[in-house]
Structures are given as C-alpha cells and as structure tokens.
Amino acid sequence: METFLLFGPPLCVAAGFVLIQRSLCQARKINWYFLIGGISLVGASCLVLGHLSAFGGLGGAVALVIGFYALIGALPLVLWMLLSLPRWRKVVAPVLFTLLPIILFLSIHIGNDSVPERTKEQNTQIIASALERYRIDNTVYPENLDALVPKYLDILPASPEINYGWLYKNDGNDYALGYASWIDRFYVDFCVYTKETKEVKMTRILPPETPIFQVGPTPYR
User: Fold this and answer.
1) Alpha-carbon distance 13 to 28, whole Å?
2) How much of the chain, in percent, has pLDDT values that exceed 90?
3) Which span out of 84-98, 108-122, 156-170 was modeled with the highest average pLDDT?
4) Distance of alpha carbon 144 from alpha carbon 127, whole angstroms
5) Domain spans of the chain, in order of start
6) Is 180 helix (H, G, I), strand (E, B) or coil?
7) Deepest in the core among 20, 41, 132, 183, taking most CB within 10 A?
8) What is the gyration radius of the CA atoms in the chain, in angstroms?
9) Which residues pair with 170 in a beta bridge?
10) For the ranges 57-71, 86-100, 198-212, the one whose mean pLDDT is highest
11) Angle at alpha carbon of residue 143, lines to 139 and 144, rounded to 5°
C-alpha cells in the first residue's frame, strides 16, 4: 500500500499523459477511449494525493513531494506532445501542464483541510467565538454549551468521536473548552482552548493528576 501511495501518482500521471497523446496523435481522429482513460488516470492521481494528505501529520508534506515529482515526470511528456501532436492539438500540451499543478495541489489542500484533528480544532474555534458573543450579551459565560443554541449557534458542531465529547468548564469570567484526543491506560491527552491562549493546545494528564475537566472513568479504569 505504501509503495503504491509513493510511486502510484507519478506513474499514473505519466501513463495518463501518454494515453492523451495517443488519443490525439492522428490529425483527423480522436481515440476517445484513450482520451477518457488518460484523464481518468490523472484524476485518480489527484484523488490518491488528496487521500494521502487527509492522513494528517506528515501526510500533507509527503503528498506535496510526490505531487512535485509527478510534475517533473510530466514535463518531458509535455515536450513530446508539443513535438508530436498535429497542428492546433499542440495547444493541449501547455494547457495540461498548466492545469495539472492546480488540480494536484487543490486536491492536496482539500485533503489537508479534511484531517479529522484539524476539523476538531476548527469546530473548537467556532464554539469559542460563540462563547465570546454570549459573554458580550450576558456579561458572563454560559453554564453549558447547550445555552449557545440556537441564538449563537444554529447547532453545536459535531462532538469529537472519542469518549466524553465536548468538554467545557467555566467560572463565569473565564473558561476552558476542549476534548480528549487520546485515551490510554496510563494517560489522557486533552486538547484545550482557553481565553488566554486563543488556540488549541494538547495537555497530557497522568494519573493521579487532577484533570482540567471533570470527566468520568476511561474504558481502562
């Protein structure tokens, strides 16, 4: 699987460009099977890079490197198209080489934005913004997050898919908002957003430390 993710996209882009060239090489005829197959291979490469980017961590950086090598590999094929395609069909070569990096990096960008951890952080920011609006109107922060609906939020963003869901603690003038990002037998990782930091930071709690939030037992306790 790893080998396919590393070498598949450049090879698919190269094979796609070859098929596109073969589909247009005859002056009065277009081989639609080759043309559709070539476009499909290039599209599949973009989907694979987007999927790799969505892994999070180094996935986005690896996808960018693979995308760069796919572009380098496509360059001689573009030159081949310019030399071999008849008349106006030569225009296809620069058009493809212009569109390819846009589509590749757009796929990577979309995949990167869909990383689950990034989605959780974005939802945390949305709730934090609603909490600030609530405080402006009421001088204190709400007792619970449900008080934000429906005036400050149409719905509460989806709860993180791990034990406890959204965690919230306040003393009227300050608050902590977050979620458990990882639960282990020996520790719990909390991602916490506070008014002071204005960003999500990970805090590891090792028993018997007192957690930031009052939570129930983990599956391991």
Assistant:
1) 26
2) 5
3) 84-98
4) 11
5) 2-113, 117-205
6) strand
7) 20
8) 25
9) 175
10) 86-100
11) 125
